[in-house]
Write a structure and sequence with these properties.
The protein is α/β, with parallel strands linked by helices. It has five domains: 111 residues, Rossmann fold (3-Layer(aba) Sandwich); 64 residues, no CATH class; 121 residues, CobE/GbiG C-terminal domain (Nucleotidyltransferase, domain 5), CATH 3.30.420; 107 residues, 3-Layer(aba) Sandwich (Cobalt-precorrin-4 Transmethylase, domain 1); 123 residues, Methyltransferase, Cobalt-precorrin-4 Transmethylase, Domain 2 (2-Layer Sandwich). It contains 19 helices and 28 strands. It has a six-stranded mixed β-sheet with strand order 2-1-3-4-5-6, sandwiched between helices.
């Protein structure tokens, strides 16, 4: 929850805009400002104070504990010109909050965190628990001093200005290690703990068994990614409580799955109780990996819990990112985050140029020209298989006539794949035209480079007969000038000549153009590959110069 505090009418007006935009995320604190700040600081994860920074500094200073637990605090000035990240830039999320508040209110975000200012990833922003001399190593990275990276786990990381040797060091490992005053350790989530328990096993017994097993094996509890057990134990209170205490999910598998896993220490007891000769070892091993801690029993008499620990190998990461139609403000925050997380970027050269300024220094860019889609897909998958964090970019939504399909056709289950949606050309064009997609609609590409025209024609005819709004992608090029007229002729067999047609070129870009015409009046020669053409159905209307397809509400029928 985000607490909102203001002292003046101007501040309250901006506060109320934020509250209206984020009704489920915000809570307004009224009353004396000092009391409001203290209550919000105790109750909320973040605060936005529409006050002078000096006033907020004096109010929150006595409340500060440590940056791992303090809420993020953002100040917005009375004029609404700046959104200042004041406290908890990384740990409290104030930097991102300042950017989000600035975007919403039209204010300039002010972020003074050094790593953010120069584009170096903060060690506490990599998504991994970090221990050791974080401030000293971060300062060394910023100063350009030699910082050695020892990534024993092979965990995919964003680009860091590191070397093979150096006075300062970053270790990436799930092992317990002794650190010097010039080192940090990042804890990758590589460990899976399999757990078995008798009915009613105490939570403390389960916890002590797991924690002790990890410690004696020289493994960090912060690298535990999940607890795993058999379906029959999904609700066992002691196991559920242990997972909650570690802060990781409890994953369950069927007895049949676990019975098929070869383990070093099978037993008749679990076979009789839940239908598999192994719970702890099998649950840890079912997804593969190296058994680091074979089955161990708890020290209680009688022992009511067992556990085993497996290290799963690090997996490369492929994020397939949709960049939207072109305008920077239609690039989603999630897409920006993935671009900054990637150590390798793969994409069409003109798309890379759109977002090159968002990449972190050191990002390896693999770009190519038109017609090399399959090569880009293979390259992205190969880089991920080498353990890299890869972003493969496409325009619009990468899953719509873009790079997700060829990439995922190449990818197997040995890498992690993350899809990042984007605003498609059809949606961007529809927003410009009005509401042409207000009812059932379909997108059809008229390019027959990958799909035979016979198949395309059959789909167009089906959409025409079904009275569905159609958006045509790739409608016309120099070498393909007859497909659009043919498709329009098919639609004309089922729709009136006055059916509205929207034509949008370069949606959301500086040279955007849009016009509303009709099925009879559209000149295909005015359309090119940068254009999408949306043809309405029999209910679509031109209303005040906007293309509208009614939903069919009864109250609308009476208004026609």
């Amino acid at each position: 929850m985000i607490g909102l505090i203001s002292a003046t009418a101007a501040g309250a007006a901006a506060r109320d805009r934020l509250a209206a935009a984020w009704p489920d995320r915000t809570r307004v604190y009224d009353g004396p400002v000092g009391d409001a700040v203290r209550r919000a600081f105790a109750e909320c994860e973040q605060l936005v104070c529409f006050l002078a920074t000096g006033a907020v500094v004096r109010l929150v200073a006595p409340l500060l504990g440590d940056k791992a637990s303090d809420p993020g605090v953002v100040c917005v000035d009375e004029g609404g010109r700046f959104a200042v990240s004041l406290v908890g830039g990384h740990g409290g999320g104030a930097n991102e909050l300042a950017r989000a508040v600035g975007e919403l209110l039209g204010a300039e975000p002010v972020v003074t965190t050094a790593t953010d200012a120069v584009g170096v990833p903060g060690l506490d922003t990599l998504g991994l628990p970090v221990e050791g001399a974080v401030a000293a190593v971060s300062r060394a990275l910023l100063d350009g001093e030699a910082v050695a990276l020892h990534n024993a786990s092979g965990w995919p990381l964003p680009p860091l200005p590191v070397a093979s040797e150096g006075t300062y060091g970053i270790r990436v490992t799930d092992r317990l290690v002794e650190l010097s005053e010039q080192e940090v350790v990042l804890r990758p989530p590589t460990l899976v703990v399999g757990v078995g328990a008798s009915r009613g096993a105490p939570a403390e017994e389960v916890w002590e068994l797991i924690e002790g097993s990890l410690r004696e094996a020289g493994l960090s509890a912060k690298s535990v990614a999940e607890l795993a057990t058999v379906d029959a134990k999904a609700g066992e209170p002691g196991i559920v409580a242990a997972a909650a205490r570690f802060g990781v999910p409890l994953v369950t598998h069927s007895a049949e799955e676990l019975a098929a896993v070869e383990v070093p220490n099978p037993s008749d007891a679990p076979l009789a109780a839940v239908g598999t000769p192994s719970v702890a070892e099998a649950a840890a091993l079912v997804q593969g990996g190296e058994l680091l801690v074979p089955k161990r029993k708890s020290a209680a008499t009688p022992a009511m819990a067992t556990c085993a620990v497996v290290r799963r190998p690090a997996r490369g990461r492929l994020a397939v990112v949709g960049l939207g139609p072109g305008a920077r403000d239609l690039l989603t925050p999630r897409a920006k985050a993935e671009l900054q997380r990637a150590s390798v970027l793969v994409g069409l050269d003109q798309y890379v140029d759109q977002i090159r300024d968002l990449l972190r220094p050191g990002t390896r860019v693999l770009e190519s020209g038109l017609g090399a889609e399959e090569e880009r897909a293979r390259t992205a998958v190969e880089e991920a298989r080498r353990g890299q964090a890869v972003a493969l970019i496409g325009s619009g939504d990468a899953g719509v006539y873009a790079m997700a399909s060829p990439a995922l056709a190449e990818a197997s289950d040995d890498i992690d794949v993350i899809g990042v949606p984007g605003v498609t050309a059809a949606l961007a064009a529809a927003a410009i035209l009005g509401a042409p997609l207000g009812h059932d609609h379909v997108s059809i590409s008229l390019s027959d480079l990958h799909t035979p025209w016979e198949v395309i024609e059959r789909r167009v005819r089906a959409a025409a007969e079904a009275d569905i709004v159609v958006t045509f992608y790739n409608p016309r090029s120099r070498g393909r000038d007859w497909q659009l007229p043919k498709a329009l002729a098919i639609l004309a067999e089922h729709r009136e000549p006055a059916t509205p047609v929207g034509v949008v070129r370069n949606a959301s870009r500086p040279d955007e153009s849009a016009r509303l015409t009709t099925l009879a009046a559209l000149d295909p020669a005015t359309v090119d590959m940068m254009t999408v053409v949306t043809v309405g159905n029999t209910a679509t209307r031109d209303i005040a110069g906007r293309m509208v397809t009614p939903r069919g509400y009864r109250w609308q029928e009476g208004a026609q």
